[in-house]
């Protein structure tokens, strides 16, 4: 259970990073 939550947290964090990189590439 804990491992699943950690995996979900890491995947959501990676998705957030991807969105930030995409926004920065759009701006600059």
Distinctive features:
single chain, 28 residues, mainly alpha, 1 helix
How would you describe the overall organization of this protein?
The chain has 28 residues and is an all-alpha fold. It is built from one helix and no strands. The chain has one helix at residues 2-27. The longest helix has 26 residues, at 2-27. It is rod-shaped. The N and C termini lie far apart (41 Å).
SS elements, strand count = 0
Strand content: under 5%
Biggest sheet architecture: none
Q: How many alpha or pi helices?
A: 1
Keywords: Membrane, Transmembrane, Transmembrane helix
Describe the structure concisely for a colleague.
By secondary structure, the chain is mostly helical. 93% of the residues lie in helices and 0% in strands. The chain starts with a helix and ends with a helix.
């Amino acid at each position: 259970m804990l491992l699943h939550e950690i995996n979900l947290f890491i995947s959501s964090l990676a998705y957030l990073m991807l969105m930030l990189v995409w926004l920065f590439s759009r701006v600059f």
